[in-house]
Amino acid sequence: MAVSARPEQQAASQSPVSEPTRLQLLQRFELRCGGAAAVVPESVQRLLAFLALRSRPQHRATVAGVLWMDAPERRADGNLRTTVWRARKIERDLIRSEGAYLCIGAHVMVDLTDNLVVTRQLVDNPTAPEDPGMTVDALCDDLLPAWYDDWVLLERERLRQIRLHGLEALCVRLTHLRRYSHAIEAGVLAAAEEPLRESTQYALISAHVAEGNLAEAVRQYDRYALVLDEQLGIAPSDRLRSLVTPCR
């Protein structure tokens, strides 16, 4: 004879799984706890963003010195203690302490971290046969575009370089998968970001050639050759020229 579950056991089995805590740094700042957007004071936003952008725990003195660089040391330390307290009022484990070091909670999912993992996998193996699992739009999201702190600007430039490599690799991967329109879109965006970058031009022109648009490949090469001559007084490499020589 089967034994029926107790009411409290049935309630537990039917209770929904709580949403993970998510921190968004691309396009804009947003913190979601339990699926709902949290109201986050500006000082807490800056602390969370700073810790999330670091790959290892940061000493309290370093954090205070960077985020409150214009304040006296004692006041900066006090500001940091208050900000950590405010963050923990939003969620207890949002900020984790390890002695004199602080880090973002291990359970917090950061969109930039996830984005970089997929981008680096793509860059490491651009000709893998499987779908890259990355969209062109995802590679174009900027880091906290309305923030102008020095530490944000440095991270934004680092992300820009990673994004360029990612767009190139995505162009190559999608060309191999014969998804030419998306490949060309990725190549065009990378070329717009850095017009003098020859590796980008090579990926983009290769996509045109693979699609059979030889005239477009030649036009892209000629545009690049003109810009290169006007700005640097040099010609494209033999490797790039060899792509379009059979097309003429």
User: At the third CATH level, what is the topology name of the largest domain?
Assistant: Serine Threonine Protein Phosphatase 5, Tetratricopeptide repeat
Query: How many structural domains can be distinguished in the coordinates?
Result: 2
Task: Report, as a whole number of angstroms, the end-to-end distance.
Answer: 83 Å
Q: Using only CA atoms, what is the Rg?
A: 24 Å
CATH superfamily of the largest domain, by name, is Tetratricopeptide repeat domain
- SSE-based structural type: alpha+beta
Shape annotation: elongated
**Count of extended strands:** 7
β-sheet strand percentage? 5-15%
Q: Unreliable segments (pLDDT under 50, ≥5 consecutive)?
A: 1-5, 7-16
CATH C-level label of the largest domain: Mainly Alpha
Annotation field: number of helices: 11
Strand order of the largest sheet: 3-2-1-7
How many strands, which pairing sense, and closed or not: the largest β-sheet?
A: 4 strands, mixed
Helix fraction bin: 55-70%
